[in-house]
Design brief:
By secondary structure, the protein is of the alpha+beta class. Helices cover 51% and strands 16% of the residues.
């Protein structure tokens, strides 16, 4: 299971903005679009939300982004009421984690550029995500999934999430024609070494230099003809040629393992933690929706 950690933006600093009413109070990113219990929500904060949306591969509209920024104002106000804050060091760690997940600084810079997002927006998003987590844990620490829900989730998802699929450790040589494949099988039967033939004859640039070795591969990710051939092979056996994508394959089985279902007891702790987190996230979202109805929210006309 993967726990998806969503980035979100902090509200931009708006200290010193005076309430002027009318057609908008400043210009650009500092333009006030709404006031939440008297606190300004600016165009820059909405821009942050939209940038995060683009980074996630979505395209949140202006109205939806404004509503999200209003909700973030409510979270920040609650954090202040509870005396919660985020350390800069924690933000640094979150940004470093995002950088690693993106594949390094260069990959992250490219992703940010494509999303029209800058590094400061990323930091504000990381900071808000951490602050939101603090509010969630402070207000809803007692919210947890029931035993029945944990077991029901396991039963519903046992095949997809809690089963290690069957896999094989094998090598292959990809050739253009069936006849060439038959010749190679004959050479192997006469004592030729599989890696040497793979380096000489294989048309697969990915495995050729490795002597045809693919290593452990899930059978359900392979094309059907190869999957069927491997399913009937014993350790050390050579088979083929088998017609598949791109030509004909000569195969050698090194080892195999059957599908294995992880017992509930093996995954219970991790699963319970995940479902508890989901329940607390839902509780926080419901709280934000309720606060939105109760809050004094005034939309301005920029």
């Amino acid at each position: 299971m993967l726990v998806v950690v969503a980035l979100a933006a902090l509200l931009l600093a708006a200290a010193g903005l005076a309430a002027c009413g009318g057609s908008g109070e400043t210009s650009g990113a500092a333009t006030v679009l709404a006031r939440v219990n008297g606190e300004p929500v600016t165009q820059g904060q909405v821009d942050d939300v939209r940038a995060e949306s683009r980074l996630a591969g979505e395209d949140e509209g202006a109205d939806a982004a404004l509503e999200e920024a209003i909700g973030r104002a409510l979270v920040r106000q609650e954090a202040e009421r509870l005396g919660l804050a985020v350390d800069e060091s924690a933000v640094d760690e979150r940004v470093a984690d995002v950088t690693d997940r993106a594949g390094g600084e260069e990959a992250l810079s490219k992703a940010l550029a494509e999303a029209g997002m800058d590094a400061e927006q990323l930091r504000r998003g990381a900071e808000y995500g951490l602050l939101r987590g603090k509010v969630r844990d402070a207000r809803f620490a007692g919210v947890a999934a029931t035993d029945a829900k944990v077991r029901a989730f396991y039963r519903r998802n046992v095949e997809e999430l809690f089963t290690e699929p069957a896999a094989a450790d094998f090598s292959s040589i990809l050739v253009r024609t069936e006849r060439v494949g038959e010749d190679l099988v004959g050479k192997l039967g006469d004592g030729a070494r599989f890696p040497e033939l793979a380096r000489r004859y294989s048309r697969d640039p990915v495995t050729r230099d490795a002597g045809g070795r693919l290593g452990w591969t899930r059978l359900d990710t392979l094309p059907v003809p190869l999957r069927r051939a491997l399913a009937g092979m014993a350790k050390g056996e050579v088979a083929g040629p088998v017609e598949g994508p791109g030509g004909w394959f000569v195969l050698k089985m090194h080892d195999r393992r059957a599908a294995e279902v992880l017992a509930f007891a093996e995954v219970e702790d991790e699963l319970r933690a995940e479902l508890d987190l989901r329940a607390r996230i839902r509780a926080l979202d419901e709280w934000i929706a309720g606060e939105r109805k109760r809050a004094d929210v005034v939309l301005t006309d920029p």
